[in-house]
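Q: What does the assembled structure look like for these inputs?
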Amino acid sequence: MGKEEKIGITVKKDENFSEWYSQVCLEQGAKLVDIRYGVQGFVVHRPWAFKILRRVYDYFDEEVEKDGHQPFLFPTVIPEENLIREKEHAGFAPDVFWVTEAGTEKLERRVALRPTGETAIYPIYALWIRSYKDLPFKGYQSRITVFRNEKTTRPFLRGREFMFYETHDVFATHKEATQQITKDMEIMEEVVRKKLKLPFIFFKRPQWDKFKGADETYASDTLMPDGKRNQMSSTHDLGQKFAKAYQIQIQDENGKEQYPWQTCFGPGIYRIMAALIGIHGDDTGLILPFDVAPTQLIIVPITFSKDQEKTKKVIAKCQQIKEKIKNFGYRVEVDLTENSPGFKFNNWEMLGVPIRIEIGPKEAEEETLTIARRTSREKKKIKIAELEKEIKKSAEILEKEMAEKAEKYFEGKTKETNSKKELIEIMRTYRGFVKVPFCSISSDGEKCADILKEETVGGCVCGIKLENPEKAKKTDKCVICGKEAKHIVYVAKSY
Amino acid sequence: MGKEEKIGITVKKDENFSEWYSQVCLEQGAKLVDIRYGVQGFVVHRPWAFKILRRVYDYFDEEVEKDGHQPFLFPTVIPEENLIREKEHAGFAPDVFWVTEAGTEKLERRVALRPTGETAIYPIYALWIRSYKDLPFKGYQSRITVFRNEKTTRPFLRGREFMFYETHDVFATHKEATQQITKDMEIMEEVVRKKLKLPFIFFKRPQWDKFKGADETYASDTLMPDGKRNQMSSTHDLGQKFAKAYQIQIQDENGKEQYPWQTCFGPGIYRIMAALIGIHGDDTGLILPFDVAPTQLIIVPITFSKDQEKTKKVIAKCQQIKEKIKNFGYRVEVDLTENSPGFKFNNWEMLGVPIRIEIGPKEAEEETLTIARRTSREKKKIKIAELEKEIKKSAEILEKEMAEKAEKYFEGKTKETNSKKELIEIMRTYRGFVKVPFCSISSDGEKCADILKEETVGGCVCGIKLENPEKAKKTDKCVICGKEAKHIVYVAKSY
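A:
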């Protein structure tokens, strides 16, 4: 950031979200990723993004450990025979990268770069878990990446290598497994809604959209400003399928061999980051929750290079205030680059720094300074004696403003209809969910889902709401086939 | 840990270190890794080990960020053309794994699994670093793994995938680069000597043993109980070689293009773990510093199943003490498994838990308990009122005992000679460093090093000591060729 380079976003978020999103992520924006690495879909995560992502990882680590999960780390590669042992799950194989050579030699058996952890982890679980006394067994991997050969890629939405998180739990009964699904939802509430201020709905996915090899998939979806659903997490009820495929067996209290029940939970670190960018951001750039921001407060000296004496005083005051704020326990910086104050304001707003403090020659003389929140940008002159209290207050108001704005945004993004014609019409321009009566989310509904997708040019059946689900009336007919509608489902386009 | 399985180490550390080490790492020991994953050299890091390793990572993160490094994350794969652009460094290519296929398709250009980060990172540095104002530029990657096709593999000593840490720094002058090398050494002192209580010596490596592509390599070596040197870190003075190969250029204050100077520092997370196991451990298992241990205190109820009333009281007391200790801010557990107290003692000693607390029926009645350190195992009855003070004191004594024992061990592991015959004789059975006069650590000394290696069956010239180096006397002759000795070098066998 030495020289005053051209930065800034040239499009409005509402007018061209896709371009806005790219600009925020890249060089001219918040420099979150570098896509010039030279291998498609493999990006460099730059410091500002990495620090935010690390914070999100830490939040989840804290919650899953509170819930009794133990951390571990499995290899990045998976033997081919593991990968295809669960029949439905074997469907992953066409998307995986294969390591086939080492040095100048061909490997005897090729290995895959993990597309997800089940097939690496469960053969080892079969060795570790032997008795009902070993249950429940809860493990997780954090700060890892996985690999899938996606056709199209976009920062934090779809990558060939992307940041991953996975918990893998084993229970003696299916009841405990379903309780874990609720627990996983609570973790999402705690981290994503409470800490990151992001709204979402939990869905039970249709059978045709579940995780390969699972009995059921539960997922949390939010909506991006372009109206596309963004799946921010999933928990899979694996039933006993993987236990049977990988021979995980326990001796029960009577000494009988039993297959246990499994679940796995994956908060989508990347997708959550995409939502953080897309939902909270504005025309100027990112907006970050106070606790998430790598730099929570930025101090900008308002100096006039003509008067060197005054400038010196201002800088000294900035440094002094910085030390003060550091001692309060916050992450704070002074911007001492040669850029103009206006450039600096733009730059730190682009990065989403929650609170800005301005100190000019007048403030340097008095015991005051100017404070502004990233959300409203409203400036306020305060006394230095009240700084700690004012920072706390500003942070609280900022987070409240963020949460309210996000919830309001999300609430306004659902329509409903029971006419196919109207659905098609709505989906042509609408950016959000459309609730419609639908015949079935079991496999017999897939045909209707395919038709729906085709006629709405990409509309997906997200599933049925898990909490306070809308119930189909007896008279409701499937919006596609006209047969009895068992459910009210949510439809949205998807990434 | 449901049933009382057979655990415990069957050999003495001094008598058969190699076997002792394996047993501690595996199933019958502290369950640090699982080597039954099915791909040679790719191991599973189990929770106990992972928590220790994560702590070590955190220590380094804290220090390198204090020193101004920014975290980032680069892709796991490296384009082939990057990997071979620096001529000397291209020597890595024979050891790398290649990703050549995706799904059923052959990739247009194969990519390598990173063996180390330079060739992934520096082409991007060339885009980021443009002006002297961008310098110094300090970045790092933590919690990553790298891949090398090693012939033989051992837990934490040599793996085909292993845990990695790397900082990559760019400076305007060579002077600043050399100052960074000192700074990196200070970080090693802070983390490895102070926090982990591990002794080591800094060496300047001979030219033939430097990092491929570096001008000079500086490394910290410790000695394992089998006398083999264990390189725990290295800092490479890259000079301008990589800058030239990857076209990292800066505009200096006069607007002229210049190549900057680079260093990179890699604490060997795996090797540090090996030292932690090997140097601190004893015949019973691991011994961990108080701050490093995943569980710092274990409470063992001493119960007699016959008297259920008493047992209940003991358990209640244990829970109560656990909550108390938790509130002090320590990581504590109560062992409520059905195992015998003796089995429990063994198990937690195996895991290296620093402090054990025993509570029996008598302690449950009184306001007392028994406390013992993992180091001396000496038991002490203390009053509960003094618990916090006693834990603090025990932790301090334990860490002091660990540091003293390790330093004493290390000091006693260096001999010296100036006779080749004696060197060969010593190296036949001795487990440690041998100091000898040596002609040169520039490339002209390589021939002597090769002869030395052959005649001592594996002795390596580790280099010359960086701090308070022993100076060769004018009369000293190279222990191999008999020519003038420029240095006193350290010789040891190596992994």
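The first strand of chain A starts at residue 33 and ends at 34.
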